[in-house]
Amino acid sequence: MIFEVFVLALACTVRPTxxxxxxxxxxxxxxxxxxxxxxxxxxxxTLAFGLIVVGVTEGIHVHSGTNKTKAIADIAGGIxxxxxxxxxxxxxxxxRRTDDAPRPAGRMKSLLDRRLTIRTAALAGPATHxxxxxxxxxxxxxxxxxxxxxxxxLALVTxxxxxxxxxxxxxxxxxxxxxxxxDLVASVERWTRDHARGVLLTVSFGAGxxxxxxxxxxx
Length: 219
What we know:
The chain has helices at 2-12, 16-26, 31-58, 67-90, 106-113, 118-127, 133-145, 149-163, 165-176, 178-218. By secondary structure, the chain is an all-alpha fold.
């Protein structure tokens, strides 16, 4: 289960909106403070969202851990992942915006275009990490496969740490090698621009197929 969560999280690391925000933040002289605010606010938001979902399932009878629940969750998540992949492959999902979540509001974009402050960086964290399809699929799998709250929390933290791998790496670079931080992120952004569609297609079809097969075998 952790493997599927890890793979789904990898797809979220190539989200163009968060990459653009990181580039904008580390281009400023106060990059260390801006990135700190961005990462803390973003992680707090996504973790809180996931913990709310997990907390709600703790209070209702969802039969977590049973074979039937696992199978339904896996098949449903697999179908959603395959549907996203098909939409991307056929062009129904804009190939220029290889993303699994809504775009940030126009106001957020205008904030990033203006003089950046700690406050706007903190707002950008959640705005560029709105939970999308892959996070919802991962949460579905996490809730269905784990009875213990500690296991759910561990899987949830794993997803979010992987999701925030680039912002976290950029923050570390701002602290250790601030003069190299922009070059690091710029190279990742270029790679993502060229390969994001392929990564999303691979994850969508790979994880989707694996989830459906596991769900069918579990029934």
